[in-house]
Amino acid sequence: MIKDADAFLVPIGIVRQRATAAATIGGYVKQFVCVCVCVCACLCACRAKYPALDLAYAAGRAGGTMTGVLSAANEQSVAEFLEEKIHYLDIMRLNEECCEAHKKDWVGEPNLEQIVHYDQWARKWVSEKVRAVCLWQLCWTAC
Question: For residues 90-118, b (16+ Cβ closer than 10 Å) or e, as one string?
Fold first, then answer.
């Protein structure tokens, strides 16, 4: 985890160095362009390496109960993966589908009771989805 954080901090340091160099070369326009290029390159690289990053950003922008739902769905999805009930790539798919299903019930400023409720809801939603897929696969292989 620290390794990933360090990998993200290094490009930010490079942005500062290049911005300072651009400022000494002359002009705010060059400084702005240089910073934008460096930041965009860093974000594109992170998003290519971590495709779930966009989902996390979307949940953060939505706020409210969405971040808790994403977190709970992810924890339950990982647990299902560790129990070998789903494949690794199913984790992100389940997280996305759970967040999509939660949009209709989203609460912008939740109280503690609502946070706990939607945490439990997301875990149950993922478990039921996995159970339904497992039952379907059992029926398909038996037929």
Answer: bbeebbbebbeebeeeebeebeeebbebb
